[in-house]
Structures are given as C-alpha cells and as structure tokens.
Specification:
The structure holds three protein chains of three kinds.
Chain A (H helix, E strand, L loop, with lengths): L1 E2 L1 H9 L6 E9 L2 E6 L3 E6 L13 E7 L2 E7 H4 L12 E8 L4 E8 L1 E9 L18 E7 L2 E6 L1 H5 L13
Chain B lengths: L2 E5 L3 H13 L3 E5 L2 H10 L4 E5 L7 H9 L9 E5 L4 H10 L3 E4 L4 H12 L1
Parallel strand pairs in B: 1-2, 1-3, 3-4, 4-5
Helix pairs in contact in B: 1-5, 2-3
Chain C lengths: L4 H21 L7 H20 L3 H19 L6 H23 L5 H17 L19 E8 L10 H9 L3 E7 L17 E7 L4 H7 L7 E7 L22 H8 L27 H32 L4 H27 L1 E3 L1 H4 L1 H13 L3 E6 L4 E3 H22 L3 H6 L6 E10 L2 E8 L6 H10 L11 H6 L4 H4 L14 H10 L3 E7 L3 E9 L4 E9 L2 E6 L3 E6 L5 E4 L3 E6 L2 E7 H4 L13 E7 L2 E7 L1 E9 L13 E6 L5 E5 L1 H9 L17 H5 L1
Helix pairs in contact in C: 1-2, 1-4, 2-3, 3-4, 3-5, 4-5, 9-10, 12-13, 13-18
Classes of the chains: A mainly beta, B alpha/beta, C alpha+beta.
Chain lengths: 172, 120, 695
C-alpha cells in the first residue's frame, strides 16, 4: 500500500493558499503531529527492514525504496515513548530531509496518518519552553485545527542529529 | 538559408561559432582540420567557409589554396580566423586566395556582422 | 556563452598535458619540428579560446609563451633547456589560472607576474620583439563626406570578394551616389566572366570617419585601386553620366551568383561532438553523469532479472518439469541472465580507463623533484595499459603522487651516497600495474635506501605505540609509517599544505575500497603495493545467513570455508577465541555478536566458518549458513544514512529486500575494539597479540 508522491502532489496542487502552509498530520499514541507536506515523498505501509548493527534502537534499519537505500526511524522510540507492535495501520512516511551537506531521504514509522491541513502562517504559535523536560529544538510550532493541537515538527532538526548523520567512520 | 563550413581544431571554438551562426539561422557544418573540411567541401556545397589557420593534418592556408582550386569554390567567400594580428599572416591568407579574415578574439556579434557582410 | 566554457576548460587542460608531455620528451640535440609545432598549436588554441571567452589574463600570458614557441618553430630561436624549463613552468601557471577560473578560485597573481616576467625576459633577450597588436587607426575629425574612387583589380573576384557587397556596406554608412565606369569593359566576346573590369566613383555623404570606409575595403587593400578624398564644403561637380545607382554590372554576374546560388541544401548535421570518418580513432566525449545513469539502470536491470530468476527457480521446483511452458520460461530466464550479465560487463567497461592517465603525471614530477633534490632518477613504467574505473583512478592520483615524492625524497639516495654504497649513480623508480582477481594491483618500488627501521622504531617508542624494550617484527615496524602519529614527520614540508601524510594516503585508498602495504629491505629499497577494486559498483559476493538476516561477504576476501572442530579452538585471556588454521592462529569472529543478531552464545563445534582476509590480516567469521554466490550491485548506505563500521554498503536481493555487505578489514578492526589505533598486528606463534602484550 503505497501512496506515491504523485498522489501527494495532487493534494498539494489543489488550492494552495500562499498565506498558509500545508501539513500532513499523523498520530503517535494520543498526540498528533504534522510535517510540511512539501517534504513528504511518499507514504508506505510497514514492511520488513534490514537492521543495521551498532545503531540506536530507534533506527530500525534500512529499506529498499525503488533502488535507493533509505533508513527508517521509529518516532515513538525516538521520542522515548512506549513501543508498540506494528500492525496493518502502521505507516511509514518517507521524507526529504535537508542536511548541512546535502539532502537525504528518510522514513519515519508512525501509528497512523491523519489528514492534510492548511495552517495560516499567523496561526502557527511558537512552542513554549519546557525547560529540560522536552527538547523542543525539533518543534517548529503549534497549531490548532478543529480544536485539536497539532505539533508541527522541524524534521531537519529531528532527523539530522549527530547520532544519525555522522560523516566520519568510527574506525580508520 | 546560407550554408557555412566552420573549420577549427578547437572544439570549444567550433561549438561557439556553430551556435552563434545557427542561432542566426544559418546552416552550419563543422570540421576539425583542413583535411576533413576539404573532404566535406567536395561532397557538399557551401556559401561561406570560415577556417582557423593553425590546425593539424592540413592548416587553413593550405585548405584555402585547395578550395580555390575546386570549381565550385572559385569565388566562394573564405574567411580565416587568426589570432595573429601581424600583417604577414593576414597576407599569407590572402595570397592563398582567402577573401578576408576575422581576428580572434571576437565576440559573437562581430562574427555575425562579418558573416552578414560577406553573405549579404 | 558559458555553456561552452566547460568544453573549453576540458580541451585546454588536455592541451596543457600535451604541451607538458612533448616538452619533457623533447630531444634537445635533435628537435623534431613537428613536435614543436604540436606544442605551439596547443598554446595557440588556448590563447585563442581564452581570448574569445573573455579570459584575458590567460590569453595575455599564453600569448607570450606562444610567441616563444612560434619563434622556435620558425627556427629563429634555439630550443634550450632553459627555455624548456621556463615553458614547463608556464604550463603550470596556465593550469593554475584555468583551474582558478573553472573552479571559481583565486589566481596566484604573484606567480603569474613572475612567470610572465620570466617568459618576457627570455623573449626579449632573443632579439625578437614581442608583437604588439596593431592599433586601429583613428581618423581625425569628421567631414561632410568622401569621394571614393574604387577600381578592383581584375582578379579581385577570385578571392571571393564582391564589389557589390562593398558598395552595399558603404551604403549603410551614409548617403551614397554611385557612378559606374565601364571604360575598361572589353567586347562581349573577349569578356572573361571571372574578371572584374568595372570601376566606380562613389560619393558618400554623411558624418563618416575615414577609418570606417577603410574598414569596408580592409580585405581588398592590395587587390584594388582605392582613392579616398574628403568632400569639400563646396561640392565638386558630379560627373554628368546617366549611370546612377546601377550596381550589378554584367561582369559581376559570376561572383554574385555563386554567393547566392545554393544547390540543394542538405541539412547541416548538428555534429557537435561526434567524430567524423577521418580515419582517426573515433571517440565521443560523454558527460559522466550520463554514463552513471546507464550504469544505474543496468544495475536495476540486474536486480530485476535476478528477481525473475529466483521466481522462475521457485516455480520450476514446484511445478516440476512436465510443464512445457515452464521449461521454456526457465530457458528464457537463463538466456536473460546471460544477456544481462554481458550487458553489465559491457557497461562497466565504459568507465574503465587505462592507468596511464595517472602514471602520466609522474614523469614531470620526477623531472622536477630530481633536479630540485639533486638526485638522479630513472623511471620505469610497466602495465600502464591496465584498466580501472575512472572514479577510482581519480582518487588514487594524489596518494600515488605522494608515494612517489616520498620515494624520491627519502628512498632514493643522492648520487654520492649511492656510489658509496656500491650502487649506480642513478636510482630507479618502478611503477607497475596488473590485474589480480577482482582487483588492480599497483606497485611503486625503488632501489633506494629502504625504510629506516631504527628511526621509525624510535618515533614509535616516543609516541608510546611500542614499548621501550620491545622489538616487533619488521613488517609491523614498516607498517607503522601509515600511523597518524608517525607519518607527519616524514613528509616533505612543501609537498602539500594539503596536509598529506602517509596516514591520509592510506585513508584515501581505503575510501575507495583499497589497501596499501609496504615492504622494505634496508639498503636495497622499498615497495609500496596498492590494491584497488576494479569497479566500485559491482561485487561478486557470497551470501551468508546469520540469524534471520542475510549478509554478503565479498568473494575476493574469502580464502576458504570450513566446519569448526572445537579441538582447533583456543581461548585467550578468557575473551578472544583463536582457531588453529594449519600453521597459524586466526581470531574467531562470531557474526552474531558483531551484528547483534540472534543468539551469540553457542558452541563453536561444527559451526560454519568463513575464513577471510583483509588488509593482510586473517580471521574466521562464524555464520549459520552459506547461501548462493552472486554478483550484486553495490548501493550506498551513505547516500541517505551514514557509513557504518564493518559494513561497506548494501545491495538489493532478488526478493527486493536489503542485504548488507561486509567490510572485511573493517570487521577485523571492529573486532579488535574501536579504541585500539594500532594497525593489525601479526599473531605470535603462542597465540598472543603483540599489541595486547604492550598494553
């Protein structure tokens, strides 16, 4: 079950309001998150991954995406939430990440995909300072849609942390 | 549309000349040295020949002499591309039968103006 | 215009290479003029092209060099060693300028000024003045107009010049009044249509500079009679002849027709880069991205074919052989596999180039270094036609250069010392390349002094890598030169500025999947052996199963596979396990623990072990099962993720899943522990590891 980028494109294509940003939202436990729709390459169902040794546990491994090797990150584990078993609703969102040196493709495992929303720019609020409780560097902002709070993620910050992207090999 | 034979051993020069002239609507054929050019000229006719002087296998001066010996090219305008600004090199071309010369470096506009002058 | 810059830079760099090679090969006693001509032409092209594309600095500098060469080919100037050296340096400077231009960097203005001064001094010392471009004459003042008497010589038409054209050009400058003089026109029967008999008196009114008029007649200066005089305020009486602006006379018929007549036009071929049939080797310049795309697509094809092959195999075993269609399908798939394999091999060969491209940098290097260091060195090159992948070749250029510099600086001794040691005055540096297995081996060896073990050992002791009283075996000591802490001291101080040391050399070679070793005999010489994969994209691999996962071990790293007998296994320090393989001990690596897959606590008895070799060290990897051997397309992990220790890449199997490819040297390193920076130490017969002892 794959929603290729073309379908995603058709969602964007319709009525893009220049004063609003579009986000794809998904669910993790009871929380709803959003990512910039322009960064979404495709949406896939969960399939097996090839694990990579010596990596943090939230990096599940890599998959073959039409000939390219793409790493998959479990967001629940990344956020330190309780792990769940993957089921038929489990979804992988493939994203384009902009890193310092180049762009990369990565996938995140989420519980389920929600919807696509337009959020007018002035309605995006900054995240409050949680202190040391929650690292808010990867939160781009908060939005309210249909009375729900959506946590808009800065995926570049979230997924290009040092532990994920290291340019040097550990051994010479 | 007039057809032009452009001869130069430098690919980048050929590309530029070709591009400029084609852009103005001329038909352009390329050759990378005098020998190749002569062979092409024998099988096709051209309204104008633009040639570099210093080339391997057959230089521009020899090419000019050879072309003039061919009936269809007795009166065809032949222009030499030369970086030498010395009179003797220009004259050497003329002595071989060339119509005139274009001094390198030239910009595309100069080239087009000269070609227009010669082809009318 | 900029679209042509790339081609210009490429062909200019090639031209510079030609210049350099030919200059180095010049036999000063007996110079071949054709060679000088070739060098001249290369410089000439660069000068012309750079001028056309607006790179005036390059054009001006090259012009001086070109003038020198022109004099040489004309025989006016003798070809001396001094001139050759100066020209060689000029080549370097021009290269530098072009590099700066093409990469957007800074030109070294000082070097350029110095180089130009050098050229000019040489030039002027030879009595031949530097040509200055003739200045265009400036006509002074403006006049009401001009009177022009223009009579072409009879043969003017034969140079393709057309009086009509010139008159038209004048018409563009101002108001024209033309009168034709037919007085020289012979009777029709005596008329030679190829000659010009007419003359014209032209009155040009307007604010026109004399220079402009002269420009119109520029080309025919010596083929006509031309008289230009300014019109006075009081105009001269015009001739009364009825002939007015009539232009094309009968005598002009022939040339006019030829210029407009165009028998059946053939469409001009847009042959920008295709080679013509001129009898030379046909080659096409193709952008490397196009080639890479083809290679990628072929790679995908291989994967798809492999998938089909797998399904076909499964279906076949299910259905049995009674099904006729099945048989044909299986046959077809086998054929497909053969075709795909051939296609793949063919495509990989596209990127293969002979190593001579890299070797060609060395003669110049030796020429410069040997004179700088006052040493005499002969270069012997063999196997320069051995081919390897273009990308690999580009990456080993610098390391090779460094190794050669090293050999000249520290290896080959000065002539005096050599003679004192009973050797010939001139040292020899050998470059050799050949194929071995799936690799290309490059040897750089000299007959110099070899590595100084004492020196290396002292430095190692000073750095704490080797214990004070320890004397490791020679191989170990020699290998230490690649260690980061030691190598920097051995570098020539002006080599780089790029911070190149032996450790960087090894690192760069490793980065392309290769390895470098050194062997040396003190007093006799040293040999560096570089081993590189032939291609970066395809690998012959052995599929193995570890737990639930499939991994791939490069076939070139596999020595043998065997079943473990627990009697052959010994434990060391309660942690490491060693296997007695014939007469040596090799470490046992449990893949399960290295990769955290499955249960790693098992008895080794009867287990499957794959004996591998990497970077000179051997090890035995325990796996669960040996699966198929197949050619796989290497996919990068780093594109979207990062490099992982012990893993050199990934591939996509026939069923679409990802399998990781083991980096054998990396795994062996990992197994020893990341913290240990010492290169693989040989195992002593009693099973202990030297590094462990020292710790």
């Amino acid at each position: 079950m794959t929603t290729p980028a073309s379908e995603v494109d058709s969602v964007i294509g319709s009525e893009t309001d220049p004063d609003a940003d579009q986000f794809l939202t998904f669910v993790l436990a009871t929380e709803e998150y959003g990512v910039d729709i322009l960064r979404v390459r495709e949406i896939k169902g969960w399939d097996s991954v090839t694990p990579i040794p010596n990596t943090p546990s939230y990096i599940k491994g890599v998959i073959n995406l039409r000939g390219t090797i793409v790493p998959i990150v479990d967001l629940r584990q990344r956020f330190g939430m309780e792990e769940i078993e993957y089921g038929p609703m489990t979804v992988v969102i493939v994203l384009k990440i902009e890193c310092a040196d180049r762009d990369r493709i990565m996938g995140i495992v989420v519980d389920a995909v929600s919807d696509v929303y337009d959020v007018p720019k002035e309605e995006m609020k900054d995240a409050p300072d949680f202190g040391s409780v929650v690292d808010t560097e990867f939160i781009r902002g908060l939005a309210t849609v249909e009375e729900k709070m959506i946590i808009i993620l800065d995926i570049d910050h979230l997924l290009s942390g040092d532990e994920i992207i290291m340019t040097d090999k550990l051994t010479a | 549309m007039a057809s032009i034979l452009a001869v130069d051993d430098s690919a980048s020069m050929r590309q530029m000349v070709c591009f400029t002239l084609k852009g103005a609507g001329y038909d352009v054929t390329e050759a990378k040295d005098g020998q190749e050019a002569l062979q092409i000229a024998k099988s096709k006719s051209f309204n104008l020949v633009i040639t570099d002087i210093n080339m391997p296998n057959m230089d521009g001066i020899t090419l000019t002499k050879e072309l003039r010996a061919l009936a269809p090219y007795k009166f065809t305008p032949i222009l030499t591309l030369t970086t030498e600004s010395s009179q003797e090199k220009k004259m050497a071309g003329k002595q071989a039968g060339a119509t005139g010369w274009i001094v390198k470096p030239f910009n595309p506009d100069q080239l087009l103006a000269t070609v227009k002058k010669v082809l009318g | 215009m900029q679209q042509f810059h790339q081609t210009f830079f490429e062909e200019s760099f090639e031209g510079l290479d030609i210049m350099e090679n030919e200059l180095l090969n010049l036999d000063l006693g007996n110079t071949d003029n054709e060679v000088i001509n070739t060098i001249f032409r290369a410089a000439h092209s660069i000068k012309g092209g750079s001028g056309t594309f607006g790179f005036t600095a390059v054009s001006e500098f090259t012009h001086v060099a070109e003038t020198l060469l022109d004099e040489m080919r004309d025989g006016i100037r003798p070809v001396t060693q001094e001139a050759v050296d100066i020209l060689l340096r000029s080549v370097d400077i021009i290269r530098g300028m072009l590099s700066a231009l093409s990469e957007g960097g800074e030109m070294d203005a000082d070097a350029i000024a110095k180089g130009q001064a050098e050229l000019e001094t040489l030039l002027n010392a030879g009595d031949t003045a530097v040509e200055t471009p003739s200045d265009a004459e400036q006509a002074s003042g403006s006049v009401d107009g001009w009177q022009i008497e223009f009579k072409p010589h009879p043969e003017m038409l034969k140079t393709g010049n057309d009086p009509v054209r010139m008159i038209k050009a004048l018409a563009e400058l101002g108001e024209l009044d033309v009168q034709t003089d037919v007085s020289d026109l012979p009777a029709l029967l005596d008329l030679n249509p190829e000659d010009s008999y007419l003359g014209w008196t032209i009155t040009l009114k307007g604010d026109v500079a004399e220079a402009e008029i002269l420009e119109v007649f520029e080309w025919v200066d010596d083929e006509c009679d031309l008289a230009i005089s300014p019109l006075n305020a009081a105009p001269e009486t015009k001739p009364e002849q009825p002939e007015t602006a009539e232009q094309a006379g009968p005598a002009a018929a022939a040339p006019v027709d030829t210029s407009t007549q165009a028998p059946a036009k053939e469409p001009a071929k847009a042959a920008t880069t295709a080679a013509k049939k001129s009898g030379e080797s046909a080659s096409i310049r193709v952008g490397i991205d196009k080639v890479d795309e083809i290679i990628n697509l072929v790679g995908e094809l291989v994967i798809t074919q492999s998938m089909l092959g797998q399904i076909g195999g499964e279906l076949d075993s299910e259905q049995g052989h009674e099904n006729h269609q099945m048989e044909k399908l299986v046959e077809g798939l086998a054929q497909l596999e053969r075709n795909t394999r051939e296609l793949q091999e063919s495509v990989m060969r596209i990127r293969m180039l002979p190593i001579s491209f890299v070797f060609s940098r060395i003669p110049r290097l030796i020429h410069d270094l040997s004179s700088k260091l006052d040493k005499k060195v002969d270069l012997v090159v063999t196997g320069e036609n051995t081919e390897l992948d273009k990308t690999v070749m580009e990456k080993i250029g610098d390391p090779m250069v460094h190794l050669v510099r090293n050999a000249l600086d520290h290896g080959i001794e000065t002539p005096e010392r050599r003679v004192a040691a009973g050797k010939s005055e001139t040292g020899t540096l050998n470059l050799n390349a050949y194929h071995k297995g799936g690799n290309i081996v490059i040897e750089i060896f000299d007959d110099g002094a070899g590595l100084n073990k004492e020196k290396i050992l002292n430095k190692a002791r000073a750095n704490g890598l080797v214990g004070e009283n320890e004397v490791p075996p020679d191989d170990f000591i020699n290998d230490l030169i690649f260690h980061p802490g030691l190598s920097t001291a051995e570098t020539l101080s002006d080599v780089s500025g790029r911070g190149v040391g032996m450790d960087v050399v090894r690192k760069n070679i490793k980065a392309v999947g290769g390895s470098v070793r050194v062997s040396s005999t003190e007093g006799k010489g040293a040999m560096f052996t570089i081993q590189l994969p032939l291609t970066l994209a395809i690998l012959d691999g052995q599929l193995v199963r570890v737990g639930d996962e499939t991994y791939i071990i490069p076939l070139v790293s596999i020595i043998e596979s065997l079943q473990v007998k627990s009697e052959q296994v010994n434990a060391v320090a309660g942690k490491a396990e060693l296997y007695k393989l014939r007469d040596e001990y090799i470490p046992v690596i449990r893949a399960h623990s290295v990769f955290a897959v499955g249960d790693a606590n098992y008895s080794l008895n009867d287990r499957l072990m794959v004996v591998v070799e990497g970077d000179g060290a051997k090890a035995g990897i325990i796996v669960d099962d040996l699966l198929a051997q197949q050619q796989v397309v290497i996919k990068s992990l780093e594109t979207n993720y990062r490099s992982v220790s012990g893993i050199s890449g990934a591939t996509i199997l026939g069923d679409g899943t990802v399998a990781l490819i083991l980096d054998v040297p990396g795994i062996i390193d990992m197994f020893r522990g990341d913290a240990n920076p010492v290169p693989p130490a040989p195992i002593k017969p009693d099973g202990s590891n030297i590094a462990e002892q020292a710790a």
